[in-house]
Design goal:
Blueprint: E1 5-10, H1 16-24, E2 31-36, H2 47-52, E3 55-58, H3 61-70, E4 78-81, H4 93-111
Helix pairs in contact: 1-4
């Protein structure tokens, strides 16, 4: 199997999704990219990101709804909600632990892959 492309999204791509990209960027089992939904994002989500992605991970359910509404003209990949509130700073230890556990669950469900 080729390595899946995983797109991680949060509000502004400053803390949650950026942390996920940072801690998993050298993982050999998948490619990862992060972006935000807000116009003030460090890196704003684009159609190219969604076309690249095999799986999209969002932090909150409303972000999934927004992507489906804004990009309804695209054939969207599966979008999974991690349910991680915007309560953490970039590279916060608790956020890292939560991301590892939730990424492990989602990857196992979608690809039978474990994140170590």
């Amino acid at each position: 199997m080729t390595r899946p492309n995983i797109l991680v999204i949060c509000g502004r791509n400053k803390r949650r999704s950026r942390t996920a990209e940072h801690i998993f960027k050298n993982d050999d089992r998948f490619n990862i990219r992060s972006a935000g939904l807000s116009p003030q994002s460090n890196r704003k989500i684009s159609e190219n990101d969604l076309n690249w992605a095999d799986l999209v991970l969002v932090m909150e359910a409303n972000q999934k709804a927004k992507i489906r509404k804004v990009y309804r003209h695209l054939d969207l990949p599966n979008i999974e909600v991690l349910n991680i509130a915007d309560d953490y700073e970039f590279m916060d230890d608790e956020l890292i632990d939560m991301l590892r556990v939730k990424m492990d669950q989602v990857l196992h469900e979608n690809y039978g892959t474990q994140v170590t």
